[in-house]
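A favour, since you know our structure tokens better than I do. Could you add the entry underneath, on a fresh line?
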Amino acid sequence: MSTHPTAARKLLIACVCVLSLVLCCGLAWWQWGRYTSAGGSFQNLGYVLQWPLFGLFPAFMFWRLRALRRQAKEQQSATSTTPEPESRRPRPAAVPAPRRDTGATRVQAVDRNADAPMDSEDAALAEYNAYLAELNAREQEGN
């Protein structure tokens, strides 16, 4: 199916929206009759107010999907004019790898991207990992 709605598709969507509204308004009228009868309650009045909203929902969804589709096209055209970066995924920071030597525990940081520049988030993560490795080394020395 093409991305542009044809006249028949637009007509079908409009018919579904109108049919939904007519059907739900009929149900609201039925609930109004029940509310005004001797056994009616405020629950019936609540349904009287809800049914027209249910009937308008397909039209709202059609409008919302069109707006989202238009927004996606605008974003796509804006990103297609600017060059995309090589990789959008952040580079992993240095990961400490525990290594046991003769009785003492030492932690050696293994940097998988030594040539990659570190941003502030990567630096903070590396610092945190080093702190955790130091805590682990202290715990291992105590055992």
Observations:
- Helices lie at 7-36, 42-81, 120-142.
- Residues 95-142 form one domain.
- Residues 68 and 74 are 10 Å apart (CA to CA).
- The radius of gyration is 32 Å.
